[in-house]
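Collaborator request, handled under Task 6.
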Amino acid sequence: MNIEFNDNELEEEQNPALKEKVEKDTELKNLIVSYVGKKKKPENDEVTLEMVLEVMAEDFPDFVMPIAEENWIRGYQQALSDVDEGQRLMKEAEENTEESE
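Structure tokens returned to the collaborator:
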């Protein structure tokens, strides 16, 4: 499975947390940051969350894909819920307008 990242996102669509350096403050983070650092060889020796995600998607997609799928499903469900709520509010506003006339 090959996952490609598209860097054509608008700046306001990007999550600034992805560019932050990952601190090695736990044993697991230390292992992951060391692995990613060896693989990506960043110029400033700082591993970012974006680098970790890229490597995890390449080397361990069976871990990343269920998280991405769950996130997509929750986002889709939230969008449907927002549409329903918007329609309910529009109907309520229309009924209030008709009553006041």
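The cover message to the collaborator said: "The mean pLDDT is 88. Helices lie at 27-40, 49-59, 61-100. Please let us know whether this matches your experimental observations."
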